[in-house]
């Protein structure tokens, strides 16, 4: 997930050693920290470069504009999620709700993956540029993989309503931290929420919500 | 909801013309705009005063600290929501899910109430101080009114899971704007989401999610 090599924060940017394997990852990690700590608007390519110990030109070289660095940082943070999404879609369809719920809660429960996710959510909520990146990557790629497995005409809307339940849980449990939702076990939440996610995706059963005549 | 009488804490500043009926409201409106446009961290009491055309001492006089101005601005923005929440709880319990869903979507669909709500969400997501205010006001007051009507031992958690579905819809439809969720009619969403909100609150029926043995 992250580059194990130590970051050379504060290293003179001229040094040619700043290039080579690991540099790209180091810039990405610095970008993620900058976006996380300072928020999208206050981050600059120069600041990312300084934090990564490289010349700003190198950031431009690898990624381009600030928006592009942000997109790369999100993509990187979501790489395991996207890999996982393939596995999610691959299992039995009658349990996709539980798999998706476990998977999303798993990302949020793990402090290592929660931090970049929080950074993304905060940026996406406050800046249209960041929201656009979020839409392209998360909505299109993560949900897209699930949608393709659902052989239903309204699969996209179904996937988004299911995602909305999980996004709301994440907001109230991990970001706003309302009680008791912030303190109950993940299993308690999975037991109550997975059937709702499943219901949105494949229907709630006869006469129940989510079914179409 | 809010105290109509000005608080007498501190001495009124010299600018006599700035005082009088409407001054408090003008400060509140300026505060809401400042928090909305600049985000919690970048707003200052001085900036709010300038935007409202009053002396900073008058802001302190009416509200106190920045956090207190923020809380007052949220309280003010949520006043109709809290009034509505009483009506929500008063109707037949088997339709509380639809009433709550209609009510929350109604607030978000109306541009006049959407703007302050967006400001609150953005601040609450990014700043712990703002999140604490959000917890106190929205979670405790809005959900509290619904919880008191549910004669169930786990009513708080139920209300939060229902709220999570609606918070997620708001995030994806109005903030991040994912498609098709951002473009379908409110009625389409209500038809699919109200039964889920109802299910969280009062149970999904025999053997379905949300019921307790």
UniProtKB/TrEMBL annotation, chains A, B:
Pfam families: TetR_C_16, TetR_N
Transmembrane parts of this sequence: none
Keyword DNA-binding: yes
Keywords in alphabetical order: DNA-binding
InterPro entries: Homeodomain-like_sf, HTH-type_TetR-like_transc_reg, HTH_TetR, Tet_transcr_reg_TetR-rel_C_sf, TetR_C_16
Stretches assigned to the HTH tetR-type domain: 21-81
Residue ranges flagged as DNA-binding region: 44-63
The keyword Iron-sulfur is assigned to this record: no
Annotated spans, Disordered: 1-25
GO molecular function, one term: transcription cis-regulatory region binding
Low complexity bias (residue ranges): 13-22
PANTHER family listed in its UniProt record: HTH-TYPE TRANSCRIPTIONAL REGULATOR RUTR, TRANSCRIPTIONAL REGULATORY PROTEIN
Protein name: TetR family transcriptional regulator
Organism, as annotated: Streptomyces sulfonofaciens
């Amino acid at each position: 997930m992250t580059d194990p090599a130590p970051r050379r924060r504060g290293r003179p940017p001229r040094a040619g050693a700043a290039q080579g394997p690991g540099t790209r990852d180091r810039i990405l990690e610095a970008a993620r920290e900058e976006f996380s700590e300072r928020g999208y608007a206050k981050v600059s390519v120069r600041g990312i470069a300084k934090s990564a110990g490289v010349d700003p030109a190198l950031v431009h070289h690898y990624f381009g504009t600030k928006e592009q660095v942000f997109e790369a940082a999100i993509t990187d943070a979501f790489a395991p999620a996207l890999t996982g999404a393939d596995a999610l879609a691959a299992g039995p369809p009658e349990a996709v709700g539980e798999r998706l719920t476990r998977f999303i809660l798993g990302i949020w429960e793990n402090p290592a993956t929660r931090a970049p996710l929080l950074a993304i959510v905060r940026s996406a909520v406050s800046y249209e540029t960041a929201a656009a990146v979020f839409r392209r990557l998360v909505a299109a790629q993560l949900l897209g993989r699930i949608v393709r497995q659902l052989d239903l005409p309204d699969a996209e809307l179904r996937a988004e309503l299911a995602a909305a339940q999980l996004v709301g849980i994440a907001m109230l449990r991990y970001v706003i931290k309302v009680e008791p939702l912030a303190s109950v076990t993940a299993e308690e939440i999975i037991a109550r929420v997975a059937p709702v996610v499943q219901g949105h995706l494949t229907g709630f059963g006869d006469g129940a919500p989510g079914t179409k005549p």
